[in-house]
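Ligand: manganese (II) ion. Inputs:
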Amino acid sequence: MAFELNDDRIAAENGKRLKWLEEDYEHLGRQLARRGADIERLTERATAFRVAVPSWGVGTGGTRFARFPNPGEPRNVFEKIEDCDVVFKLVRTTPGISLHIPWDRPESAAELRSFAEARGLFFDSMNSNTFEDQPGQPRSYKFGSLSHTDPAVRRQAIEHNLECLELGVKLGARSHTVWIGDGGNFPGQQHLSRAYERYLQSAQKIYAGLPPDWRLLIEHKMYEPAFYSTVIQDWGSSLMAAQTLGPKAFCLVDLGHHAPNVNIEMIVARLIHAGRLGGFHFNDSKYGDDDLDSGSIDPFRLFLIFNELVDAEWRAVPGLKLAHMLDQSHNVTDPIESLMTSAIELTRAYAQALLVDRKALAGYQETNDALMAAQTLKRAFTTDVHPILARARERKGAAIDPVGTYRRSGYRAECARRRPATGPARSGIV
Ligand code: RM4
Ligand code: MN
Ligand code: MN
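Predicted complex:
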């Protein structure tokens, strides 16, 4: 099939589905009106929802056992942006791209920026990488980076982060995400307090280099690659660090970075209370940092997280400005399909959270009516908001059926022709 994926193609595909969508939308609109909800208002909010895609998410991921690449994988940052553009065209929720440096370090920042902007895309948060060694790098991160015992290693890690800021300014980014793999595998290997203090001193130097309108996002992770202790292991360490650094430092919650069964929506609520919730890396997991597609394992948890965010909006919590990003590793799917589906799942959780009858919920909470309070959330969660999401996409010129439209476009086959495999590429994914 000849490759074709442009606005006309999407509109033609949409034309075949419009009548059914209108029927479903009208029906849902009548149902919601009976509940006192205005479907048009919900559709507007769903239309405005945005999440950034990770540049590292368009290549096939891998585990420490193997990587099974798809045909036509992107071979450089420009090809990654072409794939991000396809995701964007089909869902129109993902104009932002989060870059990982040095994986995506461009030769010319200006060229990369105009390549993205010509497609209506922009650069969201920058991500530094001091969790692996790059070829030719003078000092090793084997025993840590920002918290390393050797000041020369710390300096190298700080400088890398400052380089990310400099590059980010040229690319038009506005925030920088720092996740470190520092930690230990053995009790006693690291002095737990001193390692944290060294991290804070290094982070202060990065913070001091932040451009005035930027935010520093601190990402915690319980374990991996260090398996006994991790320097920024939880939201407590992250919050203390943000508070120590200053008002431009915030905490980033990656959904996969907690112990199983941890109540992440509680963490979200606490960070909102502290005025330090800065953003998310969305993904889903069953056991650890599985980086599975958002909403694929526990959509109710995702809904409960969005419930906290919508509640904060409803309470008009000041200063809440969140960086929504996907951080996933696609091992068995076409990454473009996973990213589109995940962006839709997030919008779904958001639309469902908007449907919570907050006045009723507050009343049930006040009177300790546990059953009805829970039912109020469940009622919103069990509403099939598909017509709202499809309508929002169709109005933006995106696809009513993104995966179907993508598959019929022949894009992957075209990529396989244009981008012959370059050998057994490394995963570039942790
Ligand atoms: C880490 C963490 C970071 C991501 C790397 C690739 O586990 O989630 O956000 O940049 O993986
Ligand atoms: Mn992450
Ligand atoms: Mn992770």
